[in-house]
Specification:
Layout lengths: L1 E4 L9 E4 L2 H7 L17 H8 L7 H15 L4 H7 L7 H6 L5 H16 L1
Antiparallel strand pairs: 1-2
Helix pairs in contact: 3-4, 4-6
Length: about 120
């Protein structure tokens, strides 16, 4: 199962995210892969949700940081795939010109392991 984060929700491109079984169980039955998971009211929706649920002081950036630190400290996947998992692109223009894919299949096992870690 895949989730798509559209350009209007983040950066200038679509970011496909493979959903683990735990994520699907949490989110419930999906209509289709191209239907947004959430109705996002603003760029600050996640931050606002954190504050509303007692997470004042936590940051959205911290979620990505936690995942990236875990990938780099406990796996052998490397920083390029870790960056792609959190939709950060540090490639130079030459690499971007030749590497156009989103590495979805390479990211799938990383996100499954992250899900197991977080849910475990």
């Amino acid at each position: 199962m895949l989730a798509r984060v559209t350009a209007s929700q983040i950066a200038a491109s679509v970011h496909r995210v493979p959903l683990s079984a735990a994520a699907v169980a949490l989110l419930g039955k999906r209509q289709a892969n191209d239907v947004p998971l959430f109705k996002v009211s603003s760029a600050d929706a996640l931050r606002d949700a954190l504050k509303a649920n007692g997470g004042n002081g936590f940051t959205v950036h911290g979620f990505g940081t936690s995942m990236q630190e875990w990938i780099l400290a406990t796996t052998a996947y490397g920083s390029d795939l870790a960056d792609m998992c959190i939709h950060v692109d540090k490639r130079d223009s030459v690499r971007k010109a030749y590497q156009r894919g989103d590495q979805l299949e390479q990211r799938r096992p990383i996100l499954k392991e992250w899900s197991d870690y977080v849910a475990g």
